[in-house]
Amino acid sequence: MVWKKLNLLGRGSYGSVYSAGEATGSLIAVKSCNFFLSSSLQFEVKLLQLLGDCPFVINGIGSDISMEEGTYVYNLLLEYASGGSLDNLIKKSHNNNNGGKNMSESEIASYALMLLMGLSSIHDKGIVHCDFKPANILVIPTRNRMNLLKIADFGLSKIAGDMGSNGKSRCTPLYASPESYLWGLNEKPGDIWALGCIIVEMITGKPLWSSKNYVDLVGRIAYRKPVLPGNLSEEVQDFLTRCLERDYRKRWTADMLLNHPFIVKNLSKLSIDEIKSLHQELVMSKKRKITEKPWMYLKGMFSTSTSTTATTVGVANKVEEAADDVKN
What we know:
Helix content is 38%, strand content 18%. With 328 residues, it is α+β, with helices and mostly antiparallel strands. A hairpin with a 4-residue loop joins strand 2 and strand 3 (27-34). The radius of gyration is 20 Å and the shape is globular. The chain starts with a strand and ends with a helix.
C-alpha cells in the first residue's frame, strides 16, 4: 500500500497519530513510533488481528516500516475516523453556546449498544482494554446521519488474567476502577466500570468524578460510592448501578448488560436508517482483515493470526432481523 503522512492528529505515550493519504485518494490514519521502541505498537497489531471481525473496534488495515530522517519507524495503518472522538462529540453536544443539543436517552442507549458489542468481542478474545475512555472511542459518520462508535487505542491493553500486568492502575485516572487503585487489578470488570463513567459523561457532559488533585481523586474512586445524576429513568439508573458496582465480582459483564432493559427497549426505537447503518456495518466487518507488509528482511519478526467472528450473536441477530423486516 502506498501512502503519505499529511497532518499530525495527536501524540500519546506509545506513538504519534497522523492522517495519511493513499494513492487512491482515500484517507487513513497512521500510528507511528521508533521501530526499536515499537513493542507496544506491534502488540496492538496482534490484538487488532484478533478483533478484525468486530464492527465496533477500529479497523486495522496493515503495518509497515518506513525510514524517516535516518530512523526506522514502525507504522500501524488504521481506518480513518472523520468524526473525531467521542470526547469531541460529548463536548459538542453539550456546548449550548455553539448550538449544542444534549444527547437523548435513546441516542445514548444506541452508543452504549455499540460499545458493549465492542467490549463483548474484546473480552471474548481474552483481552482487557485497560484505557477505555471517550478519547479512545472514535466516531465514524454514516450516510444515514448516524454516528458509529469504534473502540481504538489498545496501547495499554493486556491479556486477561496476566498477573504480571497488574500491580498498579493502567487506566486514565478519571475512568479507573476502585480495584485498580486498591489492589492493582486491571481486568475485564475495570472496562465495565469505565463504560459507566462514559455513560454518565454522555448524559451530563462532565466526568463522573471531580477532585482537587490526583490524590483526592484516587481517594474518592477507591473509597466512595459514585453519585449518579438526577432525573434519570429507572432503566438508566439501574444500568449505571450495574456498571458502577464497587465490588468488581458483582459487576455485570458486557454480555449481561446487552440484555439490560435500557439497551433492549431502546434497540426497538432505532429508526429504519439507523437499523440499515448498523446492519451494513455488521456485513462489511466480515470482509475486513488486517494484513502486515513489513520490509522483506524483517519479515521473520512478524506472524499473522486468523480473524474470527467476534460479534455478540444475540444483538447482532436482532439487528439483522430488523434489517430483514425493513427489506420486506
